[in-house]
C-alpha cells in the first residue's frame, strides 16, 4: 500500500532526476561544440 506522501516523494524524486538529466544534456550539448572547435 502506497500513501499519498510516498507518491509525492516518488514524483519529487523523478522530477529531480529528470531536471538533473536535462541539465547534464544541456551542458553536454553546450560543451561538445566548444571541444569540436
Please tag this protein with its features.
37 residues; mainly alpha; 1 helix
Helical stretch count?
Answer: 1
How is the main sheet built? none
The level of helicity is: over 70%
Following the backbone from N to C, one meets helices and strands in this order, namely: H
**Terminal Cα separation, in Å?**
54 Å
Which consecutive residue ranges, at least 5 long each, have pLDDT under 50?
none
What value does the Rg take, in angstroms?
16 Å
Description:
The protein is rod-shaped. By secondary structure, the chain is mostly helical. The chain is built from 1 helix and no strands. 89% of the residues lie in helices and 0% in strands.
Could you outline the blueprint of secondary structure elements for this entry?
Layout: H1 4-36
What is the compact description of this entry?
This protein is an all-alpha fold and 37 residues long. 89% of the residues lie in helices and 0% in strands.
Amino acid at each position: 500500500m502506497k500513501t499519498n506522501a510516498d507518491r509525492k516523494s516518488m514524483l519529487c524524486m523523478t522530477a529531480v532526476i529528470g531536471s538533473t538529466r536535462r541539465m547534464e544534456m544541456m551542458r553536454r550539448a553546450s560543451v561538445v561544440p566548444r571541444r569540436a572547435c
